Amino acid sequence: MASKPLKTETRGRVAILTLNRPEALNALNSELMNEVCDAVAKYSADEKIGAIVITGSEKAFAAGADIKEMQDQTYMDVFMSDFFARWNEVAYARKPTVAAVAGYALGGGCELAMMCDFIIAADNAKFGQPEITLGVIPGMGGSQRLTRAVGKAKAMDLCLTGRMMDAEEAERSGLVSRVVPADELLETAIGAAEKIANFSLPAVMMAKESVNRSFEVPLDEGLRFERRLFHSLFATEDQKEGMTAFVEKRKAGFKHR
Ligand code: HXC
């Protein structure tokens, strides 16, 4: 029997989703992405979970959408099924998501990583949008999120030439938040997720929403949105606990409410 394409586990308040199609370098087929979306929805709704890590193998985060699944699809097939539309659910998760990327993150793989809140890369990571080599273009945010992350010059370069960029270039360009040795990747990502998951969950969720809002609205609207969320946090027990713990020189014990 084939092994499950997505492995899930929890460690304390962190959920870890591991893409697991080694025979296809974790190429993202519909079955796998449905499982990813289901798992993100499930853990987002689980009050015991405070952050989600999405990772692959040391060789590949994901080498793209599954080309063999797409090869014979017609325009009517992809249009009528709104192919890929559901994948965006990962970006709309309300709980924080961290992509831990080693090896190839190409096409839909790069796009899945960019749907997460931030990307921690192994030093062997390679990012790219090679769809142009297949006669298509990115379909799940590659021309949009990549451009917002790295600017027009690099986004055009990657989308038009299909070349890959290594972890060092990706960090320099602002696509990834940090680069670590490959054998430290997962522990670093889980450590970051644990740290986030132990902060006040409403504050974390609002911080995420506020940063994301900056991509949608003019500065003045964004500043007002941020300020209103900031005000609202004074209605939480966690604000009282966080500030009292600081004054009392002790560690805060957040209740996520
Ligand atoms: C289906 C894939 C695949 C993919 C690799 N494989 N990528 N299968 N879809 N995206 C399969 C290969 O067919 C092969 O299976 C096995 O995985 C190992 O791959 P190799 O090519 O033999 O490995 P290697 O020589 O190490 O080369 C690695 C690679 C290459 C450079 C990453 O596999 C590659 O270029 N892959 C395609 C990358 C790509 O174009 N991605 C974009 C897809 S389009 P067999 O059975 O032969 O052993 C896309 C559109 C997104 O993502 C739109 C919105 C989501």
CATH architecture of the largest domain: Alpha-Beta Complex
**Strand line-up across the major sheet:** 1-2-3-5-7-10
User: Are any ligands bound, and if so which?
Assistant: hexanoyl-coenzyme A
Work out the number of β strands. Answer: 10
Helix content: 40-55%
In the CATH hierarchy, what is the superfamily of the largest domain? 2-enoyl-CoA Hydratase, Chain A, domain 1
Task: Indicate the CATH class of the largest domain.
Answer: Alpha Beta
Q: Decide which structural class fits the backbone.
A: alpha/beta
Rounded to an integer in angstroms, the radius of gyration calculated over CA atoms is 19 Å
Distance between the termini: 44 Å
Question: How many separate domains?
Answer: 2
- The mean pLDDT is 97
Low-pLDDT stretches: none
Q: Give me the number of helical elements.
A: 11
Run of helices and strands: EEHEEHHEEHEEHHEHEHHHH
Shape: globular
Give the percentage of residues in beta strands.
Answer: 15-25%
Largest sheet: 6 strands, mixed
Q: What's the CATH topology label of the largest domain?
A: 2-enoyl-CoA Hydratase, Chain A, domain 1
